[in-house]
Amino acid sequence: MEQRITLVTLGVSDLARAKGFYEALGWRGQEVEETVFFQAGGLGLVLWSRDKLAEDCGLEPGPTVGFGGIALAHNVRSEAEVDALLAAVERAGGTITKPAAVNAIGFYSSAFVDPDGHAWEIAHNPGIPLAEDGSITLPDFGSL
Amino acid sequence: MEQRITLVTLGVSDLARAKGFYEALGWRGQEVEETVFFQAGGLGLVLWSRDKLAEDCGLEPGPTVGFGGIALAHNVRSEAEVDALLAAVERAGGTITKPAAVNAIGFYSSAFVDPDGHAWEIAHNPGIPLAEDGSITLPDFGSL
C-alpha cells in the first residue's frame, strides 16, 4: 500500500448546507449526482450523504454522535490567518470548539466543527512548514 | 481558506496496535510523544490517542460507535492491486466490510475498517487517474 490518501469523504445530512458552508469558506468544487468534489492539494475532499457513505463502506450508518474519531487539520501561514479563518467559520455557521491560543506544544491552534460535526484543527505551526503549494513534508522529528 | 488538508488524524485506542496495522500494510512513519506521523503524499496521516484528539478539538471523546462519518479512499492502479491490498488488510488484522466488486458506478471497489473502526475504501477507478506520485486531479465531471 503506497502511503497516500486519494479522497477524504465527509458524510453529511444536508448536502446543500454542507456545500454552502465550505463555499462560504472559499472552497470551489463540482456537484455531480448529489456528491460534491473539491480538489484539495493532490487529493479530493468529498461531501456525500452520510447514509450512502456508510452503505458504500459496508457499515451501518448508526447515530451521529459528537466526536467521530477523526480530525482534519488545516495549517496556515500566520496566526492572523488562523484568526481570520475562525471568523469566517463563525459567519459560515460553523462552531468554534477551541478558541485560538498557543497550545502546550507551543504553536497557535484552534478547532471548529462543520455543520455535520466534522472536526477541523486550524493552526499556525512553524514546526511543519507549508510549501508554496500548501503541501507539507514532515520534519525529522528525531532531530528536534 | 485554501483548498487543502494538512493532516488527517485518526483517533486510536491502542497506538501500538494501530501503528502495527499500518506498518503491516507497508507504511513507514515516525513515532514521537505517543503520536505516529506518516507522510502521505503532500499531507500527513497521524495516529493519536482518540481521547487526546477529542480534547485537542475541544470535544468530548464520547463513545466509539460503528461509523464515524468519514471515509478515506485509497485508489490503486489495477483490480489486482485491490485484491492484493485486501489480502494484506486481512493478514494485518483489519476487517473487510465490503468485498471487492464492480460497483453501481462501474468501477472495482471495496472497503475495510482498521482496528479502530476507521473506514477505508480501496478502489481501482479509471475515472480518477492516479499521477505517477499517487496524487489525483479531479476530472471535469460536467464533461463526463
UniProtKB/TrEMBL annotation, chains A, B:
Residues 4-125 form the VOC domain. InterPro entries: Glyas_Bleomycin-R_OHBP_Dase (IPR029068), Glyas_Fos-R_dOase_dom (IPR004360), VOC_core (IPR037523). This is Glyoxalase. It comes from Streptomyces chattanoogensis. The lineage of its organism: Bacteria, Bacillati, Actinomycetota, Actinomycetes, Kitasatosporales.
